[in-house]
Amino acid sequence: MTSLTAKVDALLAQEKWHEERKKLRSIILDCGLGEDVKWGNLCYTWQNNNVLMIYGLKEDCAVGFFKGALLDDPEGILAKPGENSQAMRRMHFTSVPEINTREDVLKAFIKAAIEVEKSGLKIEFGEKDRLELPAELLKKFAENPDFERAFNALTPGRQRGYNLHFSGAKQSATRTARIEKSVPRILDGKGLQDR
Question: Which alpha helices (DSSP H) does the chain contain, by range?
Answer without folding.
Answer: 4-12, 18-30, 96-101, 103-119, 135-143, 145-153, 156-167, 172-187
